[in-house]
Each structure stands twice: as C-alpha cells, then as structure tokens.
Amino acid sequence: MAAIVVSLASSLASTTSSSSSSLVFRKLRSTPLLGLSFAVTPLCCRRGKRMAHSLARATLGLTHPVQIDPPKISFSVKEIDVVEWKGDILAVGVTEKDMVKDENLKFQNPILKKLDSHLSGLLAEASLEEDFNGKAGQSTVLRLSGIGSKRVGLIGLGQSSSTTAAYQSLGESVAEAAKASQASNVAIVIASPEGLSAESKLRTASAIVSGTVLGTFEDNRFKSESKKSSLTSVDILGLGTGSDLEKKLKYTEDVCSGIILGKELVNSPANVLTPGVLAEEASKIASMYGDVISATILDVEQCKELKMGSYLGVAAASENPPHFIHLCYKPPSGPVKTKLALVGKGLTFDSGGYNIKTGPGCLIELMKFDMGGSAAVLGAAKALGQIKPAGVEVHFIVAACENMISGTGMRPGDIVTASNGKTIEVNNTDAEGRLTLADALVYTCNQGVEKIVDLATLTGACIVALGPSIAGVFTPSDDLAKEVMAASEVSGEKLWRMPLEESYWESMKSGVADMVNTGGRQGGAITAALFLKQFVDEKVQWMHIDMAGPVWNDKKKTATGFGISTLVEWVLKNSS
C-alpha cells in the first residue's frame, strides 16, 4: 500500500511543474459504521480541492434565489357601518343560512339586507344569477355603485362558519380577489357575527389575517418574472376593537412570518438548500433574535465525538457535509418553568440511497421536501423569537444531511451505532430519516427537556392511512396528546392520533443487532414511531408527528408550512 501511495504522489508531483504547493495527504471520509478507520490517498493542495468543489457547486444550474420581501399588509380592526366604508373591495363572509331569502327574494340577514337596499336590490339579484348560495369555496365579486366600496364580494363559508379553517379560507379568498382586481385596500365583515364570544372573535380575526397573509404570499424566488401584490391594507369590521384584538393580530403576523420561512425552506431545491445552507438559515434566526435565541452548529468531527453513528451513516455518501443544528430560546426575563424541545427531520434531499427511489409514486423529484420537519421547527423558532413567550425554554434540533449514493455510503446490511449505544441493522437505506432522528432525540433528551415533539416526513404509510392533508400523531402520553391536539384545533391544522402498538415491535428485531431500521409493509407508520421511541428517555414526554402528507400541496405544487402554527400555539400554552 505504501508503495502505491508513493508512486501516485510522485506522479502527481511530476504534473504540477513549478507549483510551489506541497503535496498533502488526507483522511478518506469515514463514519463510525466503518470503525473510524482511515485510508491514505494523495491529494493536491487543499485550497485547490476546495476551489474545485466550490466551482462544481456554483455550476450546478447556476441557480440563485431572488430576494423577495414578503407581503407587507397593514391590518386594522374597526367598528364602522359597512355601507360607509370606502375602499376597493368590501368582502362579506356568508354561510348558506345567511343567503336564505324571503318570498320576495330579499335577504333576511341584517347585513346583507342593508347592503342590498343601498344597492337597489342588485346584490340579491346577482347572487341568484350567479347561483351563489354560500357554499364553502364559492365566491363572487361584483362592481356595484351605491355604497362606499367600489366592489362587493360574497365569500361562501359553508353550512357553518365556526371553524378556524373556514375563516382562513375566507382570508385566502379575499387575497385571491384582491390579486384579480389589483385592489390595494379591502374590508372584511362576517354576515352573522352575533353569538360570537370575545374569545371566538379573537380566533376569527386571527384566522382571517392568517388566510389573507398566506393567500397573498407567492414564492417567486426562482421565477424570472414575478408580480408584486397590490394589497396594502385590510380592515376587519364588526368583530370589535381594543388592545386584545390588536395583540392577537400582531401575534398572527409573527406566526405567518414563520410559516412563510417554512414554505420557502421546503420550496427551495436541493441544489440551493444544502445542509450547510439550512444551518446558515438557522444561524440567521439566532442573529435576528439574539436577545432570546442562541445557535450551536456541530460539524462532522463534533458529531463523531458524540458518537452519532446513526446520523453520520446516513450522511456518509454526500459531497455536502452534514450539519447538526441546535437553536435555544430563553425568555428575555423571569424564571424558566418548563423546558420543551422541537425536533425536525432535516433531509435536504433523499435519493433513497442504495435502496434508490424508483417507479411511479416514489416522489424522488419532490424529495427536497424531506426536510419539512426541520422547516416547521425553524419556522416556529422565527415566530417565537418575535413573540418572546415568558417562562419557557425551547430547544430546536435538526440533524441536517443528504441521503445520497457513493462508494463511501451506507449499504443495506450495514450496522450503525447510535449515540445511546444501541445498534441498528440497516435493512433499507431509504428508511433513513429515523436514523438521523435517533441521534437527534438522544441529544435532545440530554438537554434536560421535559417534553419533546418531533416532526418528520417519515413514511408513505402515513399518507396511505390518512391521506394528503392529515398528519399522524404518535405518543404514549395522553397528557401531551391533549395539549398538542388542543393547539391544532386553534391553528386549524389537522392531526389524528394513531396507536403505538407495542406488539408490532417484533417485526423490528434483528438477528445480529439490537434492531432493524424498518419492518414489513403493514403498519409502517407505527413501526417507524416505535423505532424512534427506542431513543427517547422514559422520563421525557414525547410525541412524533408524521407529516409526510400535509407538508406539500400537490394541487398548488407548493409547500404548505404545515406544523408551525400548531407548534407555536403549543409552546405558548406551556408558557407562564
């Protein structure tokens, strides 16, 4: 071996002519699964290698996202007569019951009746001609004279308007109407606000604002041309006024900024968002909110010191090195009463490894979204950095890497050792997310937290079970389940608790290691959750959220920002 090395070194030396750079030797990439053994190979100067690598990265599509500022919309709550409000669009959220007319085909709802009288009956007439009856998803915008607004919009809320989702949809519809008519100022009113409690009015206003902001946002960073939104102000009428409402609107805008970050992260292609870039984005959050958030980014050598063999095994094949991200939020003042952690799967691209993703439905072209869990965690971090809740410390953990294919990569049949000492026989390299989460969960438990929620685009089995819009929830803690499910009811995001059937663990046993990393096809989402459970301290309350379905909107071909609103709401419920 030594003779070969000298021969190659001599050969390289003879081709470098007058170069003054001395030859150096480097360690081959190694991981704990290879026993930390090293081979020696010749290499020209490190600077040249880095430059070549940099050029290679730069030429991969020459793609650079354009910096686009998120929509800046001013929201106000007002008590003003709807017929006197002046602006571009007066949007009225109506239920099917609100659209019922009397024998003279006149509205019975007080607000609609008042508007129609000032519009000479044209609103009722137009609703009949348009066959508009208030069903969810229906909307019509009419240009009518007779009131202060240039246009009147009717937005259907369905049979009942009591859900967060219905009011978010109202905001989204208003945003679409504003885009279509290039409106700059809009007012939104609920046709039947009576009966809403003070708390319900806060939630309603919040949902409307959330829908409007997110409905206005378009991720055009990778398009050669894009239009700016014309919407600059939205007035919410009839839901009251006061400091409580204003605080709620500010809170909602902060959460939306986190959701927009999450969407942008998931939408970013893998040639742009590498593990290193994801770590940079996390560090930016810590820089922006340095009074409450700190950042620790661990490199490969530091992860080796912590014996993260499971995580490093996944990362071994990629030219882009892994980055282990740890942000920590601490309140600006007062004691910490509760310590929480949010852990997100951070595969910036998943090829499947040697068990490569192939065939229809494998979704390899969408595997940029395999870091959706980390996007939710970092989006929540950004929102909480602005909200600054008291009495709670929050750790945000992401084991970022790529799952690629190369001669240094993890093979089917290899055995990796996690940082808690447990050994894993890798019977499928495409069940890689749980391997990264294993070390992330061990690390998180060592931070002294009391509760952990992890989020991951973990299994196709969960999509089969729950479809594209519902995330599966797995936890042995009924108390934690109640907390997070209550937070999701406020956010409007759909979660469904799934069983942690311990008898299924039999399929995860290995003949040569402590466990395999994937069982059979049946109950795949459950066995994945049971695998993660092996790396959580029994004293810590833990929940796993499989968000493989709702991370992506296939119809709109864009990320959803799923999970961020629920996480922020849950943290606030745990704050003093």
From TrEMBL:
InterPro entries: Leucine_aapep/pepB, Macro_dom-like, Peptidase_M17_C, Peptidase_M17_leu_NH2_pept, Peptidase_M17_N. Residues 428-435 form the Cytosol aminopeptidase domain. Its cofactor is Mn(2+). It catalyses: Release of an N-terminal amino acid, Xaa-|-Yaa-, in which Xaa is preferably Leu, but may be other amino acids including Pro although not Arg or Lys, and Yaa may be Pro. Amino acid amides and methyl esters are also readily hydrolyzed, but rates on arylamides are exceedingly low; Release of N-terminal proline from a peptide. GO terms for molecular function: manganese ion binding; metalloaminopeptidase activity. The keyword Metal-binding applies. GO terms for biological process: proteolysis. Keywords: Aminopeptidase, Hydrolase, Manganese, Metal-binding, Protease, Stress response. It comes from the Eukaryota. One of its GO terms (cellular component) is cytoplasm. Homohexamer (dimer of homotrimers). Belongs to the peptidase M17 family. This is Cytosol aminopeptidase domain-containing protein.
